[in-house]
Amino acid sequence: MTEPPSIPTIDVHAHLLLPEVEEAVAGRPGLVEAQGLDARRNGSAALAVNGPMVGARVPKLIDVSVRLAAMDATGVDVQLVSPSPSHYHYWAEPQLAERVCQLANEGTAAHCAKAPDRLHGLGLIPLQHPELAVALLDHALDQGLRGVEISSHAPGRGGTREVELSDPRLASFWARAEETGALVFLHPFGCTLDERLDRWYLSNTVGQPTENAVALSHLIFSGVLDRHPGLKLIAAHGGGYLPTHIGRSDHAWRARPDARDCAREPSSYLKQLYFDSLVHDPHVLRELVRAAGPGRVLLGSDFPFDMGADDPLGALRAADLPIADFHSVRGGNAAALLNLA
C-alpha cells in the first residue's frame, strides 16, 4: 500500500512524563489517599506489573531523541504529545491544581520545542475546578500547545458533587475551546467501577472503554455538542464501547422522553467528534470508520505504554480500509485538524 509523500503519518495519542509535576505534588495532603484509591482500583497484581513496565519506558517518555528514534522505527512522522494521565491529580486544591497545570503546560511545550516540526503538544486543565479551566486552557494555548487533555470526569471534593463533562459549570470551558479552536483530548484515568475491576487488569481493559462511553454519552445526551458544534474533541481508545453500540443510545432517544435532551439521534453526533484508531481489532476499527465516518478517525498508538500499539501503521493496514480512507486515518485527518501544511 503506497503512502502519498505529501501526507505525514501522524500519531495523535502519545504521552510524556513530567517529573516537575510529581515533584510539585510530593508530600501534599490528598496524594496518599489518591494513590490508595488507584491501588484499590487496579489491584496488587496490576501494580506489580505497572512499575517495571513504566520504568522501562521512561527514556521514551522523557528524552526527545529517544522518542524521535522510536517514531522513525515505526514510520511515524509527527506526534501529538499529551502528559501521562497520571499527572491529572484531580484531588488537588485550587492553588496546587493551578500549579500542576501550569507546570504540565510549560513542560510539554518545552519538550515539543526540541523538535517543533515533529512534535505538537497538549496541556492540562483542572477538571475538578471548572472555575479555573478557561484561564488554564488559555495558558496552554499561550505556550504554543494545541489544546488540552482531560479525563472522563473528576471526583467530587469536600462535599462538592462529581464533575461530569455535562456539568453546567464547564459551559465556559466548552465555549472557550470552541472559540479558540483548541483540541480537547478525552483520555480517561481511573474507572468508577472501582474494586469490581481489580483483577486481570480489568481496570484498564474494561474500565477505559467504559469511561469513554460514559463521558461521550454525557456530552451527547446533555446537549453540549448541540450548543458547541464546532468543538474539536478527540476521544482516545476509539471512543470506547459507544461507537459500536450506539444503536442502543438511538433507541433510548426514540423511545424515552427522559433521553431527549439532545436535538438528534445520538449516532449523528459521532460525525461531530474525532476518535483515535486504538481499538486492537481490525473489525472494530472498520466499524468505527463506518459509524463515525472516514474523516473522523485518527491514528493513535498510546505511545509508549504496553496497552498501546507498537506498530500503529500495521494495525491500521490490518483493517484493510479503502485506500483513500487509509490515508485519511494515517495522517490526512490529523494534518487538517492541526492545520499542518
Structural features, described:
Helices cover 45% and strands 11% of the residues. By secondary structure, the chain is an alpha/beta fold. The protein has one domain: TIM Barrel (Alpha-Beta Barrel), CATH 3.20.20.140. The strands form three sheets. Strands 4-5-8-9-10-11 form a six-stranded parallel beta sheet. Strands 1-2-3 form a three-stranded parallel beta sheet. Helix 1 runs antiparallel to helix 5 and helix 3 crosses helix 4. The mean pLDDT is 95.
Largest sheet, in brief, is: 6 strands, parallel
Average pLDDT number: 95
Strand content: 5-15%
Query: Stretches where pLDDT falls below 50 for ≥5 residues?
Result: none
Helix content: 40-55%
Instruction: Write the CATH fold name.
Output: TIM Barrel
CATH class: Alpha Beta
The topology string of helices and strands comes to EHHHHEHEEHEEEHEHHHEHEHEHH
Helix count equals: 14
What's the shape?
globular
Keywords: Hydrolase, Lyase
GO molecular function: carboxy-lyase activity; hydrolase activity
InterPro entries: ACMSD, Amidohydro-rel, Metal_Hydrolase
Pfam family, one: Amidohydro_2
